[in-house]
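Usage

Read records sequentially. Each one opens with the input sequence:
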Amino acid sequence: MAYDERLADQVRAVLTGVPGLQEKRMFGGLCFLVHGNMACGIVKDVLMVRVGPDAYGAALTEPHAREMDFTGRPLKGMVYVDSAGVQTPKTLSAWVKRGVAFAGALPQKRPKGPKR
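and closes with the structure output:
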């Protein structure tokens, strides 16, 4: 699966200056992590955002947001935002910042070292 490079560049622009930012290929797309915790990502032309379990219900009421059902079952705390929901810099930034806020509030993950 590929991901939308234009959308990836737009997400990168929003994430400029975020401490502990890392990009990683996951879910057949591209994910953005903050101190090792996933914040958001892109699968095809869809933005996925980690909003957390407490904000999950509210996020699903927003236009163009839907359950992230990558595995065939909804992943509580994760939403897909269809391309129509991130058409403007303002809407894209709002979604990405929600993911960054959630991931940034989690304990930092320690980098995995080589196996011994």
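Summary fields computed downstream for this record:
- Residues 5-105 form a domain with the Aspartate Aminotransferase, domain 1 fold (CATH 3.90.1150.30).
- The chain has one domain: 5-105.
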